[in-house]
Amino acid sequence: MNDSDNTIYYSYHSVLPPGVTFNNLGELHGDDVFHDHYRTSMTFTDSSGKRWKRDPAGKLGPLPDKFTLYSGVDVKKGLDRYRKLFREQFSLEVEVNTSHSGHGLREFFGSKRYEGGKCDAIVGPHDWLGTFRARSLLRSIPIPHVVPKDFLTREAFETFRAAEGSVESYGVPLAYDTAVLFINRKLYQGEIPKSVPEMFRAGRACRHAGEDDVNIPGVSVSMGERLHEGDPFMMWPLLASLGGYLFEPQGDDAWLPSANALRAPQLAEALIALQGIAREYPESFDPRTTHATARQIFSEGSTPFHIDTAGARSEMKCDFEPELAPVPIESEIARPGLSLIYAFYFRDIPSPENPGNQDFERNEYTRNGEDFLHYHLGSRIVCSQLSGDLGMPVVSRSGLVDEGAYAAVVQQCCSNSRPMPSLPNMADVWRILGELINQCVSTSGDSRSVRAALDVAADNMDGALGVSKR
Question: Which helix (H) or strand (E) holds 66?
Answer without folding.
Answer: strand 66-70
